[in-house]
Amino acid sequence: MKVDGGVGFDLDKVGAEARAAEELGYSGIMTAETSHDPFFPLLIAAQNTSRVDLVTSIAVAFARTPMILANIGHDLNAVSKGRFVLGIGSQIRAHITKRFSMPWSDPAARMREYILAMRAIWACWHKGEPLTFTGKYYTHALMTPFFTPTNNEFGAPRVFLAAVGPLMTEVAGEVADGVIIHAFTTEKYLRETTMPALERGFAKAGKSRQDFEISYPVFVCTGRDEKELEAAKVATKKQIAFYGSTPAYKPVLDSIGVGEAQPELNKLSKQGRWDEMGHVITDDIMNAFAVVGEPASIAGQIKSRYGDLIDRTSAAYASLPLEDRRKMIAALTAA
Questions:
Q1: What is the CA radius of gyration of the chain?
Q2: Rounded to the nearest 10 degrees, how much is the dihedral formed by the CA atoms of 215, 225, 244, 287?
Q3: What's the N-to-C CA distance of the chain in angstroms?
C-alpha cells in the first residue's frame, strides 16, 4: 500500500517539507485546493524531490476549462519527470456557481466529457493527433504549433477523480486512472456501492482493476495517551459531522443505518452550531468511518479493513511524533 502525506501552502517552507516527507518514506505528496492554489506547492516539491508522486487531492475541475488543466497537468508532469497525478473533483453546485462563477449541470456527465477533452488535448500535443473534440459541454478544435508544448518527453499525467456517488464513481472507473475516495466513506459503502460502480466503469472501457489505483484517506483517531486519543476522537467526530451535513452524502450514512442523522446535521450547520454537530456522531458512527487506537495498531487495522480494496492512503497521522509516523508508514508500505 502506498502512503501519501501533505505539504503546507507556505511556499518558503514547501521545499524542505517535501524533502522531509520523501525521506520519511511517503510514496506521494498531496495538496488540496482550499484557501490557496494547489499547484504552486507541487512545482516546488517537484524541484526538491526525486521519487514521490505529486498529487492534487483535489483541484476543482469545473473552476477551470479542460485546456487550462491540460496545460497545468502537462507542465507539472514534465518538470517532475512523470511523477504528477492530476487529482480532480467537481465540488458542489453552490461553490461552482457562487464562488467560481462557472456553469454547473449534470456533474457526472460533464466530468466524463471534461476528462475526455483533456485526453484529446494531450493526444494532440503528445501524439500529433488533430484536435477535434466536440462535446455537449466542451469543444476544443483549435491548436497551432505556437501553443503546443515542446517538452513532451514524459507525456500526459495520470488523472485521478474524486467520487462519492455511484454515477461519478462509474465515470472514474471508465475514464480516469484512479479514484480518490472521500474520507467520508464507510467500509460497507466502499464494498457495496463504490466497488460495483467502479466495476461498471471498468467494463465500459474494457479495463481491469489492475489498470487502476484506489486512494482512500482513512480517518484515523490515535494518540500517545488517553488525553491525545480523546482529543482526536472529538476532532474526528466534528469532521464526520461536517461532511455528514451535506445532503448528497446521506447515502453513506444510510449504508450504516443512520441516515436520519443527516437532516439534523444539515439543520445545525445552517444555524452555525458547529460544535454541537459533533455530539450527533456517536462512537458507533465514528468507528464505522475511522480506525481508532494506539499508534502501533493503526497500520494493522487499515490493512485488515481495507487492504484488499485500496492501493494508497494518506492515513499516517501527521500530528504524531516523527518516529511513530515512520513506523506507521513502514508498516503500511510493507508487502
A1: 20
A2: 80
A3: 8
What is the residue range of 69's domain?
2-224+293-333
Query: How does pLDDT run across 252-299, given as a tens digit for each residue?
Result: 999 999 999 999 999 999 999 998 999 999 999 999 999 999 999 999
**Alpha carbons 30 and 58: distance in angstroms, whole number:** 9
The tens digit of pLDDT for each residue in 57-86 reads 999 999 999 999 999 999 999 999 999 999
Buried b (16+ CB within 10 A) or exposed e, 12-43: eebbebbeebbeebbbbbbbbbeeeebbebbb
Which one, of 137, 135, 134, 108, lies nearest residue 200 by Cα? 108
Amino acid at 263: P
Q: Specify the number of domains making up the chain.
A: 2
Q: Within the chain, where are the H helices?
A: 14-24, 39-48, 66-79, 93-94, 107-127, 166-175, 187-189, 195-205, 226-244, 250-254, 261-270, 274-280, 283-289, 295-306, 322-333
**Judging by beta carbons within 10 Å of its beta carbon (0-12, 13-18, 19+), is residue 220 exposed, middle or buried?**
buried
- Please give the pLDDT value at position 183: 92
| pLDDT at residue 43 is higher than 90 | yes
Looking up cell 476532532 gives 235
Which CATH number is 167's domain given?
3.20.20.30
Interval 313-335: pLDDT, tens: 997 777 788 888 999 999 999 86
Amino acid 335: pLDDT: 61
Instruction: Please check whether residues 326 and 281 belong to one and the same domain.
Output: no
Partner residues linked to 3 by β-bridges: 313
